[in-house]
Amino acid sequence: MLDKSRSKELFKKAQNFIPGGVNSPVRAFKAVGGDPIFIKSAKGAYMYDEDDNRYIDLINSWGPMILGHGNGAIEAAVADALKSSLSFGAPTSKEIEIAELITHMVPSIEKVRMVNSGTEATMSAIRLARGFTGRDKILKFEGCYHGHGDSFLIAAGSGAATMGTPNSPGVTKGTAKDTLTAPFNDLDAVKKIAEQNKGQIAALIVEPVAGNMGCVIPKEGYLQGLREVCDKEGIVLIFDEVMTGFRLSKAGAQGIFGVKPDITTLGKIIGGGMPVGAYGGKKEIMDFVSPQGPVYQAGTLSGNPIAMSAGLMMLHYLNDHDEVYEQIGASGQYLAKEIAKVNTALGKNYTINQLGSMISLFFNEEAVENFDGTKACDTEMFGKYFQGMLNEGVYLPPAQYESWFLSTSLSAEDLDHIVKSHEKVLKNLLA
Ligand SMILES: Cc1ncc(COP(=O)(O)O)c(C=O)c1O
Ligand SMILES: N[C@H](C=O)CCC(=O)O
């Protein structure tokens, strides 16, 4: 067993001053038992905790650190930007540069507005869709998570599902009634809801590859089908690519599946590790945003020069290095294949969903295609598995309702260590 005494001590203290001892619920290890690990530093593929234990990082700050920790070019860009002040609250040339690069990399985005988090991006995107269409309702999918905006905390995935509060108290009945929900990967359900709410739905928002109920991949033709329903019913199609944007390809999930949304929300990777979000899409819709149009959205620190510099360096790197996606895609495939081999040898055909550098292992032999599929998995076993892997020096997301994220910093030895740890831990659990 690793010595985690300093983390334990810090957690005890943190709970006196911070609700639940953490600044975001998923960090509290509630779903997996034990106390959270307090991190001191990270470099490349590894994180180091306050007790000086080293972990292979399969969270990567929940996605942003696609190049691993301590990337020299990004850190140099931040250091350079620091010399010119931390914030101006006035336009900068860097904001134009990053907007231009985003529109180049994601062709469905013609104009883009920078905000400070993924939550801000999705909240702003649905306000825009409502302002543009003059309609009130939105349709989201069970188990998808779009940040903690009131309209989205209904049948929500990620920490909301982990904590057993997919419908959060504090969301008014009035707000909740405007959020319609459907099961992911069920096109007929969407058609039926659209028919029943004709002329009332402003936006359909979806994680094109879901990562907040574990990784769940859209069925063939599903995203195309959503596009068709939206076209037929005049609904704004929003792809929430906060997680998948610049992770699954340079153009995100839409680049892989070839379906163009009207609006895309972004976050995580576009900040290179700094707090950033963005929403962008068709000119005719984006021009509804203030000051060009009537839909109000603002931010004191939006377009922050430090965050723009980190994000810009990250996006330039990804734009110039196709091999990033080849490498992390190959790592993802290797892990999925080798873990499946171990499972089979131990008499279990657990489901593994993997696309590129997003992976989830589900303790269930049935296919996992939606939130009900995830909920049917053995989450108690996941908790024990998580603790076992942690003791082997592998830091997984501390909940079944999350995807693992890979980075380019993972070496072949790291991947093999993960597979060997998996074998050891699973053997123990099944013994
Ligand atoms: C798909 C998706 N949308 C939105 C968000 C919200 O982003 P943030 O946590 O930056 O507010 C997240 C992650 O939290 C996410 O995974
Ligand atoms: N699943 C969430 C985002 O992707 C996890 C991050 C958080 O809520 O802290």
UniProtKB/TrEMBL annotation:
It catalyses: (S)-4-amino-5-oxopentanoate = 5-aminolevulinate. Keywords: Cytoplasm, Isomerase, Porphyrin biosynthesis, Pyridoxal phosphate. Coiled coil: none annotated. It is found in: Cytoplasm. The modification N6-(pyridoxal phosphate)lysine is found at residue 268. One of its GO terms (cellular component) is cytoplasm. One of its GO terms (molecular function) is pyridoxal phosphate binding. Its EC number is 5.4.3.8. Its main location: cytoplasm. InterPro entries: 4pyrrol_synth_GluAld_NH2Trfase (IPR004639), Aminotrans_3 (IPR005814), Aminotrans_3_PPA_site (IPR049704), PyrdxlP-dep_Trfase (IPR015424), PyrdxlP-dep_Trfase_major (IPR015421), PyrdxlP-dep_Trfase_small (IPR015422). One of its GO terms (biological process) is protoporphyrinogen IX biosynthetic process. Pathway: Porphyrin-containing compound metabolism; protoporphyrin-IX biosynthesis; 5-aminolevulinate from L-glutamyl-tRNA(Glu): step 2/2. Its cofactor is pyridoxal 5'-phosphate. Belongs to the class-III pyridoxal-phosphate-dependent aminotransferase family. HemL subfamily. Homodimer. HAMAP family: HemL_aminotrans_3 (MF_00375). PANTHER family: GLUTAMATE-1-SEMIALDEHYDE 2,1-AMINOMUTASE, GLUTAMATE-1-SEMIALDEHYDE 2,1-AMINOMUTASE 1, CHLOROPLASTIC-RELATED. This is Glutamate-1-semialdehyde 2,1-aminomutase. It comes from Marivirga tractuosa (strain ATCC 23168 / DSM 4126 / NBRC 15989 / NCIMB 1408 / VKM B-1430 / H-43) (Microscilla tractuosa).
